[in-house]
Amino acid sequence: MTDKSVWRVRHLQSDYQWDGPLVAYWEVDHDPISDNYTLVEISAADLLLQWAKRVWDAYPDQVIPIYWFVDSPGHGKFERMPFQGDKSIDEDFLTFYTWPVNPNTGERVNWLALPVADKRWNKTRGDKGGFIQEATGWKPGILQPVVYLPSLMSVLQ
Questions:
Q1: What is the helix, strand, coil percentage profile of the chain, to 5?
Q2: Cα-Cα-Cα-Cα dihedral sign, residues 31, 36, 39, 41
Q3: pTM of the predicted model, to two decimals?
C-alpha cells in the first residue's frame, strides 16, 4: 500500500524538490477577524457572532466566498489552490510548483482528494478562522466556493 499523504513537488524556478503532505486550507471571507483576539479573550461562539454581523453587512445576499489554499505543513509552502473557478486569480500553486506526484508510484495528485484542514478555536488551538468550525461543527467540502450565512448559523452548536 502506498502512502497517499506524501507528495513530491519541485519548485519551477529553483528546481528545489521536496516530499511532504498537502492539505486544502480554507478561509471564509472575513474569518481573519480572529487575528485580533487570543483564545482567552473570546469564545468561538462569541467570535462567530461578531464575524456573522460583519459578513451580514458586507454581503446583503448572505452568500459568503470561501478561498482555498494548498498548505504543506512543516514545509512552509502556502499558495492559492488551483481550479477554484475564479478567473481573477492569475497565480496559484501550479504557477510556482510542478504538479505533485506520489514519490512511490508517480501518480499525480487529485486535488479533490486532498484532506481539508480542520481549524479550531478552543483551549489548546487558536487557528485563524477556527471559530467557525469550533462553534458550528462545519467545515467546507473541498473547493466549495461559498457558504450561505443563514444555513451556517442554523447549525450553531
A1: 25, 25, 50
A2: negative
A3: 0.90
* Angle CA 6–12–5, to nearest 5: 5
Tell me the domain boundaries of the chain. 7-153
Grid cell for residue 63:
452568500
3-state secondary structure 95-117: HHECCCECCCCCCECCHHHCCEC
Q: What's the grid cell of residue 42?
A: 473570546
60-82: b (≥16 Cβ within 10 Å) or e: eebebebbbbbbbeeeebebbbb
Q: Tens digit of pLDDT for each residue in 51-74? A: 999 999 999 999 999 999 999 988
**Cα Dmax for the chain:** 50
